[in-house]
Write a structure and sequence with these properties.
A two-stranded antiparallel ribbon has the order 1-2. It starts with a helix and ends with a strand. It has one helix at about 1-45; strands at about 55-60, 65-70. The protein has about 70 residues and is α+β, with helices and mostly antiparallel strands. It has one domain (about 20-70). The mean pLDDT is about 90.
Length: about 70
């Protein structure tokens, strides 16, 4: 009986840890993918700055203070 309870407890614990490890693995993969995409985007923008010059436009008032950022 005790062995059965220990086995059931170990099984539940294994399932719980499996979910935690799977969530961690998914988060690590998503983080790696986002970092790689950001790096590729930066490389593209910095290698062709003239093509992306009007991607963001700063609007200024008469005192040359920034009043808006338009994309």
């Amino acid at each position: 009986m005790l062995i059965l309870l220990l086995a059931a407890g170990l099984g539940l614990l294994t399932i719980r840890f499996q979910r935690i490890f799977m969530e961690y693995a998914v988060n690590v993969c998503e983080d790696s993918a986002i970092k790689e995409i950001n790096t590729l985007m930066e490389d593209e923008v910095f290698s062709h700055p003239d093509e992306f010059a009007d991607l963001v436009v700063l609007e200024r008032d008469s005192d040359n203070r920034i009043t808006a950022l338009r994309t």
